[in-house]
Amino acid sequence: MKVLVCAKRVVDSNVKVRIKADGSDVEIEHCKMSLNPFDENAIEEAVKLKEKKLVNEIIAISIGTDKCVETLRTAMARGADRAILIKTDQDNHEALNIAKILKIITLKEQPDLIILGKQAIDDDANQVGQMLAGMLDYPQGTFISKLELNDNKVLISREIENGTEELELSLPAILTADLHLNQPRFIKLPQLMLAKKKAVEIVEVSSLKVELSNSTRTIKVKDGEIKKDCQMLSSAAEVINIINNLNLN
Amino acid sequence: MKILIITNQVKNSLNSSFNNLLSCVQNIGNNYTTCDVVVVGHDLNSLCTKISTYKRVAQVLAIDSPVLANLLVENIATQLAAIVRNYTHVLINADSFGKNLLPRIAGILELSQISEVIKIISPNIFQRYIYAGNIIQEIESFADVKLLTIRASSFIPDLELRTEAAPIIALEYNNPISSKVKYIKSNLTDNSINLSNAKIVVSGGIALESKENFNNLIRPLAAKLNAAVGATRAAVEAEFTSNDTQIGQTGSTVAPQLYLAIGISGAVQHIAGMKDSTSVIAINIDANAHIFEYADYGIVADLFDIVPQLITLLDQKGE
Ligand SMILES: Cc1cc2nc3c(=O)[nH]c(=O)nc-3n(C[C@H](O)[C@H](O)[C@H](O)COP(=O)(O)OP(=O)(O)OC[C@H]3O[C@@H](n4cnc5c(N)ncnc54)[C@H](O)[C@@H]3O)c2cc1C
Ligand SMILES: Nc1ncnc2c1ncn2[C@@H]1O[C@H](COP(=O)(O)O)[C@@H](O)[C@H]1O
């Protein structure tokens, strides 16, 4: 069985991004970059399936500039067997374009499972997996926190508002990982060294003959933080007083 | 301008975000702008009647079938995609139903989508959070059909009624039923008060130290205040409380009138889910905790001292 996992290169979750001087966009030029945390969960799950001998090949794919090779090396250190970079000249793309590219790769590689993150922590779009499933008419298990694979079916548990929902999907299927799916393991140095030696297949996006178009444009960005002046209290009685005076009904 | 809202039934009643989505209709157009509403699910009669009473609603389209009781997207997306094509704007609440469904429709139609809109500037220009809420992005869409998931808590509900009910049109369910997916079951937690529309949220962090403490301190305090229970990811990972109580970038987004943050450091990913709360009270032992920067009121104290005192004081008040 073959699993395709997605690996997006994003600004590390500990970095506070800045806005460009002209306010046109965020400045990510010198930021520390990482593998999208949800994609770590996606890869970890694929690796666990491989350890259980239910899967024999894990292919990691990233779409973006040359720099994504580094992201793919991390994916391979985490256990992906091989990696494909779809090379473009842009750091970020509309989710629809990513889904269109992934569709072509899926049809070429014919994986049984495609595991993506539920969202990328930069644009927080939460779209690509579902879009890809719609394009391919594959069943989708989104925001999953549990997975059980047998023969040609996958049983998943997905996070919803008041609990979870269990579905059984037939393969091929598309899954998107919630952070609760698993605890990605630490990468050991030897794995990292080994991954450095593995080759990354580089495919120019132009060679895929896919029609990419943009139908959105960022006009500007601004600070989204809401900082407040905090009035300090000194006793529980004062806290209760404040609550009573808020006039909550 | 033709606007469509897609909605569903939640526990036999109208999705609580519905009226917030109605106010987006006015924001896209003007005070006279109306919309169509398509409702999917099973046993929709009373729900459709309710929807047909609102002023902003021109007509209600109902796709009602026993097959749709569990609302599997594989069974509804194709039919909805065909309907969506006829509109300029399509709105759906950014909850687990909307986030699951709309991008699938977008994929079928090869249209782009804008997620979690918090403000409508014009029919083509929208605002949304990126980078865990650190940044607000203003984005323009050139798509023929603008597919938008809406962060309902950012819009005030439009409750205005019509004098005469809007027509309800039953649409034949004609989507092929997918053999590729089978609904097994739902495991719902019995959180009596729903996080998404609670007036007060009492939220606990990893500082609670154990599930037992969480149950003995956070839950009783919430019960006394008639509040919903929330938590940080750290508290959820430590299994003090269920996953669906997580608030933040990757959990629920809440905007209550009062948010009580207890033993929570104030990581950006947590703030992302509660920053639109009207008032925030933080209890933290560390005077330098980030949470105080996002709070209206704070108390530097050990939660194991303060929370029992709060519960006692509320008990006295109740007597
Ligand atoms: C991709 C990604 C997504 C994430 N999504 C989310 C999300 O959706 N929601 C979320 O919450 N987090 C999320 N996180 C995790 C987030 O970064 C923080 O790790 C988490 O919010 C910290 O939880 P905490 O405040 O309970 O714990 P800590 O950060 O450890 O803070 C505990 C606080 O308790 C205080 N304290 C300790 N003892 C006491 C006491 N006796 N009395 C009073 N105060 C005390 C401490 O001073 C400290 O401030 C995400 C992280 C990543 C990388
Ligand atoms: N450029 C990319 N390269 C590889 N995978 C991606 C890319 N963009 C998005 N994805 C995948 O799609 C998921 C959801 O992203 P999004 O819909 O943009 O929030 C991510 O977690 C990745 O698994």
Could you tell me which chain pair has the largest interface and how many residues each side has? A-B, 85 and 95 residues
- β-strand percent of chain A reads 25-35%
Q: What percentage of residues of chain A falls in helices of 4 or more residues? A: 25-40%
Low-confidence stretches of chain A: none
Looking at the structure, the CATH topology of the largest domain in chain B is Rossmann fold
Largest sheet report of chain B: 10 strands, mixed
Measured distance between first and last alpha carbons of chain A? 57 Å
CATH architecture label name of the largest domain in chain B: 3-Layer(aba) Sandwich
Cα(first) to Cα(last) distance of chain B is: 56 Å
The coarse overall form of chain A would be globular
Coarse shape of chain B: globular
Q: What is the CATH class name of the largest domain in chain B?
A: Alpha Beta
Keywords:
heterodimer; A: 249 residues; alpha/beta; Rossmann fold; 9-stranded mixed beta sheet; two-stranded antiparallel sheet; B: 319 residues; 10-stranded mixed beta sheet; 5-stranded parallel beta sheet; 8 helices; 16 strands; 26% helix; 29% strand; globular; binds flavin-adenine dinucleotide; binds adenosine monophosphate
Description:
- The complex is a heterodimer of chains A (249) and B (319).
- With 249 residues, chain A is of the alpha/beta class.
- Chain A has helices spanning 37-51, 68-77, 95-109, 128-136, 189-197, 236-245, and strands at 2-6, 9-11, 18-19, 26-27, 33-35, 57-64, 82-87, 113-117, 140-150, 153-160, 163-170, 173-177, 200-204, 216-223, 231-233.
- Chain A is built from six helices and 15 strands.
- In chain A, the strands form three sheets. Chain A has a nine-stranded mixed β-sheet, with helices on both faces. In chain A, strands 2-5 form a two-stranded antiparallel ribbon. Chain A has a two-stranded antiparallel sheet with strand order 3-4.
- In chain A, helix 2 (68-77) packs across helix 5 and helix 3 (95-109) crosses helix 4.
- Chain B has 319 residues and is α/β, with parallel strands linked by helices.
- Chain B folds into two domains: 3-171, Rossmann fold (3-Layer(aba) Sandwich), CATH 3.40.50.620; 200-318, Rossmann fold (3-Layer(aba) Sandwich), CATH 3.40.50.
- Chain B is built from eight helices and 16 strands.
- Chain B has helices spanning 18-28, 45-51, 73-84, 96-109, 211-225, 233-237, 268-271, 303-318; strands spanning 3-10, 13-14, 35-41, 57-64, 89-93, 113-120, 125-130, 135-141, 146-150, 168-171, 181-188, 200-204, 228-231, 258-262, 279-284, 297-300.
- In chain B, strand 12, helix 5 (211-225) and strand 13 (228-231) form a beta-alpha-beta unit.
- In chain B, helix 3 crosses helix 4 and helix 5 (211-225) runs parallel beside helix 8 (303-318).
- The longest helix of chain B is centred in the last third of the chain and has 16 residues, at 303-318.
- Chain B starts with a strand and ends with a helix.
- Chains A and B meet through helix 3, helix 4, strand 9, strand 10 and strand 11 of A and helix 3, helix 4, strand 6, strand 7 and strand 8 of B.
- The complex binds flavin-adenine dinucleotide and adenosine monophosphate.
